[in-house]
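Cross-check.
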Amino acid sequence: MAETLSVKKKDGGWHARMNVLTVISTAFFACLSIIIAFPLFAGLIASFRPGRELIRRGLSINLDLSTMNLNNYNYLFSGNADSKKYWMWFKNSMVLTIMTTVLTLLICYFVAYGITMYNFRLQGVIFTLVIATMMVPFEILMLPLYKEVINLHLIDSIWGVMLPGLCGASTIFFFRQYMTSLPKELLDAGRIDGCTEYGISVKIMLPITKPAFAAMAILCAMGAWNNMLWPLMVFRSASKFTLTIGLNTLLTPYGNNYDMLIAGSMLAVLPILIIFLMFQSYLIDGMTAGAVKG
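Predicted model, tokenized:
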């Protein structure tokens, strides 16, 4: 009886400590979420105010309804010269993001598939080299890549922006870690059924890796949509600017179009938000599936 009471006391103390830790962690992450969301919320409020209010008061969450209206968004959809430029930049960013994401996922999937599912000489060396490239900052590779793009005559071309990043080491690593949890017996089963190696990778293994594709689609799309430095180096024509470059051109020594800048920045969040909502059901599975083998 005494032992039972002792065990109950221990269990009660353990649960009490866990409840305290849960409350503390919940409060911490709630505060962190508020801090992270503050710039976005402040930007959303500023997008309903005239640009001169942003200059006078800066970003603020003060809801002064007397200064809030839809004029900035009406300006974006008005069809004037500035509006047409904005939607041209938006279209360029959409095309670049979609093409980059799709090609990156396919290329990195097949590279990771070959490294993971087949045993061959220098397999470990190749994977180590892939991982080693993750340790090299882009700033070091920037000038050699720029020279290579010039030699390939891809300056001011969408391919000049996309090609250097299509085979991302981090994406390969993620797919590889996910595939290590998949049984290789599936390959043997496909071969017995008369499926080709290409058919096995596409018809059997690729559907199983949907969670990994979804998780990487969000990350790749975010990287391509928000990328500014490399497109800024490659593109020369204003008609090919992406949204990040185009919005930056609104700030000049000769005049700043804050009305269009702040409203356009808020609309620029929507594509990534839509992508996240589309793939969120697979996101956690894709992030955690490779953590446990079996």
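The two ends are 42 Å apart (CA to CA). Residues 2-67 form one domain. Passed to J.P. for a second look.
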